[in-house]
Amino acid sequence: MSLQSEISRRKTFAVIAHPDAGKTTLTEKLLLFGGAIQTAGAVKSNKIKKGTVSDFMEIERQRGISVSTSVMGFEYRDLQINILDTPGHEDFAEDTYRTLTAVDSAIVVVDVANGVEKQTEKLTKVCRMRHTPIIFFVNKMDREGKDPFDLLDEIEQKLEVKVKPLSWPIGMGQRFKGVYDLYQKSLILFNPHGTHNEGDLIVFEDLSDPDLERYIGDTAAKELRSEVEMVETVYPSFTQEDYEQGNICPVFFGSAVNNFGVKEMLDCFVEIAPPPLSRPTEERIVDPKEEKFSGFIFKIFANMDPRHRDRIAFLRVCSGKFERNKNYRHIRLGRDMKFPNPTAFMASRKTLLEEAYPGDVIGLYDSGNFKIGDSLTEGEILHFKGLPAFSPEQFRYVENADPLKQKQFAKGLDQLMDEGVAQMFTRQSDGRRIIGTVGALQFEVIQHRLESEYSAKCRYEPVSLYKATWVHAENAADLKEFLDRRKRDIAKDKDGNWVFLAETAWVLQTVQEAFPKIEFRFTSE
Ligand code: G4P
Question: Mean pLDDT of successive 10-residue segments in the chain (525 residues)?
């Protein structure tokens, strides 16, 4: 098959949701359709469950699941579909942001009763920033929830997107009768005790057909007709272009646990979701159709097996063909590397991979050469964009708690930062190290993993900080003046970039006003 046809048969996307909306359940149903798994329950939730076992064990359990479910590939209607998993806990949101750089579209699951929740909002915002096309799946229609029109209004207002329903629910909860598929013009009837497959689909080109009453009863038929009419007048018509540019988001309704409405969404997804897209680098835009291979690392898992120092780096192929055992240039290190055991992830199976194409995600065994954001190419110097570090929200001083293990402590911290667990800043005035994270859980993760993987102990001390922002100036003299005058609040991140540590929001604001030539950035890019 030609490179072009390999590219056009791939769809790489992420399912994102606020915890409990039904991401795991939906993912599992998608894999069942693809024949990638045979039984329900095969996909484990990667949620951190509190209270059952110790948090550390939960973190390890979650990490184990995260490796095996990082990429779930399957074939459906001659297409190669790659689902990229995102962590289920909000403290790992940064990991999710990075995963979103490696997909070409996203499915957002919304619980019909809870509507738009905090994580839905945060994650959709990242998709919007990146113009990632989104499809919404409103889940749990078998339960009572919000009125569909109100829910769509809420999605539009809170998420600042425009929606277009492509299916419409007939009642909900106890009264849920099914959905009308506006895309395929057919009725799909809900049977709470049955399995749903193609047999349940009734083609219904024209809703004024009196047969509708026969299927769903007089009241529901009347309601459906008037609601569909309203949908068609209120919402714009669907165009592929608007969807691909992230300007309009199709919405489907269903019930993942009942496997209802899922196939309709999947069938529409495979038709409209974009194939692997171009990726920006600092140097130029990389087109997937280019003959030469390029890709970037967006995720690293280390030390899954305590007996080996094993790491798996996940690479998204951006252009050309990746081949096993061929030499590629590691741009940051400036040297060639080859990979005898690259891994493909087909749902729960791992297989040795001979070649991979744009849109594919491959696992590379690594002995510590990679960090997040690294690029591999056939020699051209390319730095992929869109993998920024975000300004952290919680800070603590980190100190070595065992003087005999200084070396292990330093190495452990270094590697955990490469993995993207947290960020580390070194204050220039006193050389103290400050860990910054998005959530509180990462502090526990670091302490626990330093002990179990590096035999090192750390101690945290409180530091009163509000934000760490990266600082830039057009003119080197302006930057130097700023760094000199705010000496006490200046740090360097792990890559040597200048960072301003603001104690309070007020300090940040006054400093911004006092130094108008300095740009304070909330992401490292
Ligand atoms: P998540 O990955 O987004 O966190 O959600 P997950 O799929 O784990 O689903 C969260 C809960 O919602 C699960 O129940 C799941 O069974 C339920 N659920 C998913 N889809 C539907 C649906 O369409 N209708 C209804 N009524 N429930 C749904 P749980 O009790 O937390 O777990 P379990 O014991 O059922 O596995």
Answer: 92 92 90 73 60 57 65 88 81 80 95 93 87 95 95 95 94 91 86 60 82 89 93 91 92 92 91 94 95 94 70 93 96 95 75 92 89 94 83 92 94 89 92 90 88 92 93 93 94 92 94 94 80
Mutate to test the pocket of ligand 1, among 25, 26, 174 (most ligand atoms within 8 A of CB): 25
- Helix/strand/coil for 113: coil
CATH code 3.40.50.720 for 13-69+103-272: no
Query: Looking at domain 279-377, does it have CATH number 3.40.50.300?
Result: yes
Residue whose CA is closest, atom 6 of ligand 1? 22
> Which structure tokens are listed for 324?
């096993």
Cβ 191 vs Cβ 171: under 8 Å: no
Closest-lying ligand 1 atom to the alpha carbon of residue 46: 2
* Nearest residue (CA) to ligand 1, atom 29: 20
Residue 205: half-sphere exposure toward Cβ, Cα within 13 Å: 0
Instruction: Give the number of other Cβ atoms within 10 Å of residue 480's Cβ.
Output: 11
What atom in ligand 1 is closest to the CA of residue 17? 3
Closest by Cα among 264, 275, 370 to 319? 275
| Domain 389-524 grouped into CATH 3.30.70.3280 | yes
Question: Residue whose CA is closest, atom 10 of ligand 1?
Answer: 20
Residue 213: phi, psi to the nearest 5?
A: -55, -40
Ligand 1 neighbours, Cβ below 6 Å, are: 17, 19-25, 45, 47, 88, 139-140, 142-143, 255-258
Same CATH topology for 13-69+103-272 and 279-377?
yes
Asked if residues 23 and 88 have their Cβ atoms less than 8 Å apart, the reply is: yes
Q: Report CA(21)–ligand 1 centroid distance (Å).
A: 7
> Where along the chain do its domains lie?
13-69+103-272, 279-377, 389-524
Return the structure tokens found at 376: 């591999």
**In angstroms, what is the span from residue 140 Cα to ligand 1's centroid?**
8
